[in-house]
Amino acid sequence: MRLSESFSIDPNADWVQEHNAEVREVLAAYDSDKPIRVPMTSWDGAHMHGFYADEIGLDYRDYYSNVELMLQTQLEAARRRREIPVADLPLGQAPDTWSTALDMHPVPAPGWLGCEVLFRETSVPAHRCQHLSKEACRKMQMPDPRTGNFLGKIVPMWEEMKKLCEGLTYLGAPVGQPWSGVCQHGVFGLCIDLRGEDFMADMYEDPEFAHEFILKVATWCDALEAAWRPEGDKPGGYGFGDHGIEMLSPHLYEDFVVPVIKEINRRRGTTPPTGLHHCGTGTHLFPIMQNHFGLTAIDSLTFPLVDIAKVRADLGEDITITAGIESEIIKSGPPERIRQTVKELLTAAKGKGRFTMQVGDMLRGVPMDHRIAYYEAVKEFGTY
Ligand SMILES: [Zn+2]
């Protein structure tokens, strides 16, 4: 595997030193709950490679079928993130350990349950909903949580990646052992993946079936997480993040989903983690989550899709909010529109603190000057 042997920027250059000093100052102030400016965090995970894929003209069908290319792309993308000033991430410095993953995000769980997985040239994989009948849902048996359906493809690739990472160093730091990438993103979303939108009607027309089916799928999610938990680890809490819930009314959410989250945690002897990933529009459910699960932090809130100032007003100053600007706005620009959008958000929503912005890898085709304008706007309007 060919890997870069150095950063393409000079770590000792004045502009790099200035950037790094500001980053340290901003993050230290945030961590001590006395923020001087809203931090612009950078997702630094193995799934983040869209901008780098643009730079090298990556065909994603190759990335998802060639383990060596997958690992190389993850490492080189992590290096590039440390060369461009688009977030509060120190530049020109390797992390303690480079993180890697067998990256099939976001399809391992639906693929495991038998949804067809689609690979495309310019984007991450997607899956098709199955539209099963109620009868088929009732009869369905849990696929093997280690090797069932799509997981059978993941296992040998993961083994191959583990071997590649063994003893590997990159830019002076060790490469960690890869995460399997197998996890689930919410029981309700999976019910929709299997049964389709008809499941919304089921909740009114045949609530008994709907209750049974959600619990059945949640029980499988529990088994999936257990099967992929590192040996010897105790189970953590079963989370309530869910990509399918935004179309539920507060009443339906409380009636159908909350009890199932509580039941799986009861079986585990745990309580749910209090942080929530929510990139959708389900803000009307946050007060219920706060009530039942003691919500303390929300990440991936997207502006202007969601009225983040209202979320802050509803939930109070103690909630930690991490927000981003809609990818499409960053992609299409122009820079002044990006600046105005950030201004609008930060003026209304940054509150007294516990507010960060985040930038992921974004959609492919985002011009670099848009990414820079985004960061500059956070610096301009994010000060306290
Ligand atoms: Zn999401």
Automatic annotation (TrEMBL):
InterPro entries to which the protein is assigned, alphabetical: Methanogen_methyltrans, UROD/MetE-like_sf, Uroporphyrinogen_deCOase
GO biological process, one term: porphyrin-containing compound biosynthetic process
Record-linked Pfam families: URO-D
GO molecular function: uroporphyrinogen decarboxylase activity
Domain Uroporphyrinogen decarboxylase (URO-D) residues, every copy: 26-380
Entry protein name: Uroporphyrinogen decarboxylase (URO-D) domain-containing protein
Organism for this UniProt entry: marine sediment metagenome
